[in-house]
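User: I'm curious whether this sequence folds into something compact or stays loose and floppy. Could you predict its structure so I can see for myself?
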Amino acid sequence: MNLQQHANAAVQALQQGAWHLAVQHSQAALQASPKHPELLHILAMALKGAGHFPQAQQAFEFCLQQQPQHAIARGNFANMLYQLERFSEAEQHYKQALKDKPQHGDAVRNFAMMLGLKLQRYDEALVLLEAANDPAALILSADIQHAKGETADALTLVDGVLAQYGDETSVLLKRARMQRDLGQSFEALQQLAEKSTLFDQDPNYDFLMGCLNYDIENWSDCERYLLRALDSQSENLEAHQALNQLYWEQSRDSDFLQSYQRLRQANRYTPSVRLNEVATLIQTNQLDEAKHLLEEGLAKDGKLAEYHHALGAITSRQDQLDVAEHHLRIAADADRDRPRWQMDLASIFIKRGDYHDALARLDDIAVRLPNNQEIWAYKGLCWRLLGDDRFNWLYDERLIDYRPLPVPSNYDNGEHFFSQLASSLSRLHRATRQPLDQSVAGGTQTMGNLFVQQDAVIQDYRCAMQQRIASFLAGLPKGDNEHPFYRRLAQSFRFAGAWSVNLQGDGFHTNHVHPEGWLSGPCYVDVPDICHPDDTKQQGWVILGETSLKLGDREQVMQALCPQIGMSLLFPSYMWHGTRPFDSPQRRMTAPIDVLPI
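Assistant: Here's the prediction. I'll summarize afterward.
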């Protein structure tokens, strides 16, 4: 083949997703013209598609050296950096690409997506999209408004797209998902059902219908739609997770995990499906079964880094530190841009007492993810164990605040309000088992965002919590631009999440942090009599500072607080916290929140 034939073959392979073939042909063409920018661009895209990110970066950079104003190549380079969560670098390249080609629609949308959906810079993202008037940009604007917490406005925008461009199925599904987030599951279900003829054998439709039926407690139709989604798309991992969540919550143990077994029997048990089942086994503490699946996967599918990471996570839980470090090093060194993998390896170093090695891993990813709450939790732990003063700087005592929640004026007193709130929340605790993917043990947790409920008492609670948080934030000092909490202080905030936890008997919260928040904390709605300030066992108390790493005498409880009905606790989302178990038939009900600045 000559240069042009290799170039054409590389483009064709790239379009077909035949990455390795595209690499071969583009490299062959580059032998004849080693500095050709378009051939270098094709090579970079092929290497990116194959997952060879360091080599792809080299190809992108060499391409841009030859043609600095190649806006398409620069935009694609930015997309890869975005994919790798190297956001600050991606931003520089997006800006340059749009400077060189202002009408570069893909760069506009991808840059806006990163700003709005990853970095929570909502207003910047929306301004960027203002000039674009195509359906994709309008829908992305709706997604960003939705992420900002302005779901009603997002829904209006989606309705405008449907009115202008007609019933596009993906937009109808997006509209239904937004309605679901507003607590309008029944209305969304009816409207989708009326347009069912547009969704012939669409697994996305079936999956969403399953979720909507779950919301209205129609368990049989929920199961039917989820099974139908799997019939037409057997590797729909979300549908597997939702179906097995249903079975778990309904205590249908004979059906639990059978969807994965059916795939194995049909010879469709891919690595992604295996990892999905492993995650579910880990959540239900079936660690030996999960290890068996992973070891089988290594023998059958090859030494995938994802398998090594999962084995490292399991063996770490089992305190097999040498084995865990072996597996986690393989995974973390294979891809240094995976925050979870780096943090899990850092946790092994912490358990071993190698705090400087842990900090080296954490500092590397903190540069790219400065708002990641888990990274700060692990860094703070290292500083404490090293006797570093930055621990006290991070956990400024002013950031932990425990005081009564203001009682709405339309209630006789606090007892009246919290009694009504407990009744409203009780109706939302439907599951018979604790959630698979939460820190709750021996209790249940409500699904979705509590504040979309139109219940008047819950909305009164939302308003009271807004008043409580605004008062707390107004009293904090400003000006520390290095501190992960103080530097994000803003004029306003939004609720990133709200839910209720109902612990029973010997229930408790395992120690954890809140990755999706900035400020977090529970309000105590109902408390068993056994929880009282004079209890030396501190049954049912909330504990701050103790980690989930089981460090023995290296653990430290910074504060232990006795829960009392009507009290609200606020703390930075990166703070480790959990609860002591309690021995009582009475419930311990809370309504926690996560807050983000805007």
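Summary: The two ends are 57 Å apart (CA to CA). Residues 397-597 form a domain with the Jelly Rolls fold (CATH 2.60.120.620).
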